[in-house]
Design goal:
Blueprint: E1 15-16, E2 25-26, H1 34-43, E3 45-52, H2 57-68, E4 73-79, E5 84-89, H3 96-105, E6 109-110
Antiparallel strand pairs: 1-2, 3-5, 3-6, 4-5
């Protein structure tokens, strides 16, 4: 594939890390080079959702465990006290609607 300018010098052994861009590579030690880290972070989307129906901290943990295991979700932080969740994900692999649906299948409402 076509290389990003100056990218070769950072990543000698390359493997694609995102289907969105075969131009972003990770090096052999699985550490992103500075250019790849910048580009990868631009591909990620971070959203905050209000979540209703939680009755205790275990509810929040369950939502967090389910969503964090979804393909494409980089991080999930759910707060029972704040009645909210913050999710960082790759929109090429998972959508906000899929997150909302997964949360709804557990019996909660997210918006």
């Amino acid at each position: 594939p076509t290389e990003l300018s100056g990218h070769n010098s950072f990543c000698a052994q390359r493997e694609p890390i995102s289907p969105l861009s075969p131009l972003i590579y990770i090096n052999a030690k699985t550490r992103l080079c500075p250019l790849a880290r910048f580009a990868y972070n631009k591909l990620m989307e971070k959203i905050e959702m209000h979540i209703e129906g939680m009755h205790c901290g275990s509810c929040a943990v369950g939502i967090q465990m389910l969503t964090s295991q979804m393909d494409g979700v980089k991080s999930a932080e759910v707060s029972y006290e704040g009645k909210q969740g913050v999710f960082e994900f790759d929109p090429a692999k998972v959508t906000k609607e899929q997150l909302v649906k997964a949360i709804a299948e557990l019996g909660y409402s997210a918006r």
